[in-house]
Write the structure tokens for this entry.
Amino acid sequence: MAGAAAQFPFGHILDTLEYGPALEGEAIVKQWLEKHNHNFGHFINGEWQRPVDRDNIPSKKPSTGETLANTLEATEGDVQIAVAAAEAAYKTWGKISPFSRAKFLYSIARNLQKHQSLLALVEAVDSGMPSKESRTTGVPAIIRQFYHHAGWAQVLPEEMQGWTSLGIVAVFPGWMSPLVQLAQRVAPALAAGNTVVVMPSSHTRLSALLFADICSQAGLPAGVFSVVTGSTPGLLASHPAVSAVTLAGNTLEGRAMRQLIAGSGKKLSMELTGHCPILVFEEADLDSAVENIVMAAFSNSGQNTYSASRLLVQEPVYSRLVEKLKVRMTKLVVGDNLDKNKDQGPLCDPAAVIRLNQLVQEAQAEGAHIFHPSALPSGVHDCFPPTLVTGAQTSSQIYIEEPCGPVLVVIPFRTEKEAISIANHGVSGTAAGVWTENVNVALEVASLLQVATVWINTYGLLDAASGAGGLKASGFGRSGGKEGLYSYMRPSWQQPVRTTNSEVDLDKFGASSRSDLLPSPAPVDTLKAGDNPNIDKTYKLFYGGGQKRPDSGASLPVLSQTGSVLAHVPDGGKKDVRNAVEAAVKAAPGWSKKDGHGRSQILYYLAENLLSRSSDFIQLLSSASGDGNQDQAKTEVELAIQRLFHWAAYCDKFGGSVQENTLYGLTWKVHHSLGAIGIVCPDDFPFLAFVSLIAPAIARGNAVVAVPSGQFPLAALAFHQILETSDVPAGVVNIITGDRNVLTRTLAQHQDIASVWYFGSGEAGSTFVEAAASGGNMKRTWVNYGRPRNFLDQEQGQGQEFLVESTTVKNVWLPMGDIFAN
Amino acid sequence: MEVHSSGNPGWDYDESLFKSIRVNLSAVKAKAAEIGICRSVKKQWQAAWQLRALACIDLTTLAGDDTPVNVARLCVKAAHPISKDILKMLNMNEKEAKLTTGAVCVYPNQVQVARETLDKCGEGGRSLPVASVATGFPCGQTPLGPRLEEIRSAVKDGASEIDIVINRTYALAGNWRGVYDEVRQMKVACGKAHMKTILATGELGSLRNVYRASIVCMMAGADFIKTSTGKEGVNATLVVALVMIRAIRDYYALTGYKVGFKPAGGIRTAKDACVWLSLMREELGEEWTRPDLFRIGASALLGDIERQLYHYATGCYPAMGQMPMG
């Protein structure tokens, strides 16, 4: 150091007080790469495997384009070996004691902690993320994931009673914060007793490989955790031995995955990008909001799943906020992401620069104003400046298209109600920020936003104890907290599902109705009556609170087991479903706002009225068997009454809880209703299954469009009388009979349906429902893959699963505090 | 009312500028935690920044046992803050670099000896201002008359900067008009001397009050707003600073007058000082990192800066006793 001063006179620095570079040393990254000879194999069965004759893909450093190392392109055989190792390891890992599993996860956390610096640097070098971000938020978050989930591994038997591990989980972290996305999935999957195979994004493979290196050091049994590099996720995801798939990425990747594994019986959870809004109300701390907005929109160059790309500002503070934001943005510096004095590094994907330029130019041509104050550095590849767009409208392409880069579009709004409707408009629903010091506004907005995470007066906080994820087309399943464990477990009574032939012709399934609508014999009781016929009982569809004739003007005969015609029911179709969904969507918000006590009163009332009419229902049900035996019918009706009582009880006992995360303040988890749920009931237990399915859905505030058993829909149709006499608001329960496939098709493709539950027989319907969901609003699905369910059984007929499927989890973060001194 | 000032002549009392201010503590804390992380200076940049920090120090002694002995010692150190050995190693010339602290800061009774000592310290000493605390420092719990008289006496003895304390009794009761009127009279009493108003933020209860006090003092003509006396439980924190700096920014946007900022109490290391400079640079601009708009009230900081410069020049850490005593 001596003599340094002489070499570097301070002259101009003393005058300008500039920062100079503050580069992080990369020596340790180079050492690690050299240890692997800059050539990585797959990490399978606890060791590095380098099969020969594979394609090599260079992992590049985004800031310079320099090749850091070569990684392999997996073949089907490589995946096969990894999955086989995971399968073998699962036999032990799934059975070891909770304490043992906890110790392994704890050891991973410890070993990650020992290599914090290397992890942060490799993540930064490989993905282009500013190293100060990977160092201060990314790496601490992954360590926290493993400590937290070591805890879950320990207490799993008590806390997840009735649930068991799935088997092999295929993990696909995205390229946005790849390490965090990996840890968010691997930690709960392992804690729950699964083994995992990770296939990192082709853009960012190195940090996953480093993670594997560290895991092997942590003494994890061979095969429990493997990494296979490749650019064909399908090879791994559709492997028959894989039981679950979890993915982080963009909506396109999500859709492709949903479609790929539709009908396979694999459990799927996805966290997709969110096009997230921040809402700034007039009573906000504007200076703090500005700081927060800059972080939310431009950290990691706007390439986080929850990066804010829409800024909604209340009219009275619009100009002031935009002015302050512009001033703040002039301080942002773009450059080498390993320089601590730079705020933004290069984009991870070089193609994004071209795309963003195009988007911005088009907006400019449409009259929007583009503000990007920061000069781009020379010598650093693929940078895009922090960009603020004003003067665009909600119909502008730049507002509609998610940028996945440092572009923020500002839109003014007038009232709280308008803010909500702008924010909720659109297909995505990952997270949102709310800025106001007014507690009434904050809480109401938080409750009305259709997203998985709401941050009040803060943004971007994540913690292993609170599940993050998406709603609507932003995915389903959560990462973190107890809510996150359900993506990696199944009810213990269920056998693992492995469908053999899940092929279904998506164009043809349910596309046209049956054609046998010619007159059939009159119902039995009419025939028996002789000269004194009974008055013809006409069954109708039930939706919007009233009985409706089907649009087709046609009926279907209902036959008894002996083949005689019992009655005719309406042949409902596409238009009837449309009307019913409309009614359900209209009813859902009011019903979900109704307090739990109020809903439970109505469910109890349903039980009460069903009890007083039970003999009618028993008779109706027993007529189906044709032998006059009432035992089964009696059991069904009695259990149905019990189910109504059970779900009436749960109307006010599953609202949510307070999360124990690292926030000073309050984070609460709310179990929201989903909206309108389409329920396709099984033929078995035609009445009990119907009641068992609709009751939990409505208990938790959803509206339903139910398709009763195709074979024997009479009891379910007759249930409308009970609904009408029990104060169930119009549109909350809608019942449509008809060709089950036609109705299923319409429900699955309807974009206003938030979830479809399919319990029909055969695998085709389940496959169709899952595949159709990928095309539209990416609705949630709960299907049986053609496996029967014994609704008489308590676990199968009213287990916790029903609550999980009837709700979606939202976490609201509210920091607190005003005391800073005396 | 006639107001003498080179910087901020003040503004008519206007409650609408501060009454409904909203400050979210947790968000300000989050930002404060980021300041030290999002920028850093290394090598020669770090040394240059330390020299800039040195030029902004109000080298302070405010103790019951202050006598001409230690006050004179302090003043000489302020005029020659870096030992000749180190300067030589840094290839620097004290005179050319105009290397002194920003001011010395003492009690009114020590102003005279401070002024006399500095005047004997050559050009650097002669141009070095003496700042005096006044107005019943640190509590301000004396009648207004004596408080104003204290200012006048300090100015007469040679103080060209006066660090007044505001009336916390008024502030906590929400009597901002009262605070304004008093500070306005103090400004008059200061005459040509620069007025720094100490908000004693550690006793204001909320960050909203910190913002209000900042704006009220600037409206009343403060040339600097200062965090604390150094005697409160909580003194200069980045959290409080952010709020005061935002007020300075807002006042400047409204009036076009630039008001300086002085954190005092608790800033002891060269590293901390660089974080504070970075805060000023990021939030207000480079202009606000110079002694005419930025001061750090400190007594131990200078010693640490000298030690760090020694380390920069030699690569070794000096023993405490190796540096000339100040």
Summary: Confidence is low (pLDDT under 50) at residues 1-8 of chain A. DSSP finds 29 helices and 33 strands in chain A. The longest strand of chain A covers residues 665-673.
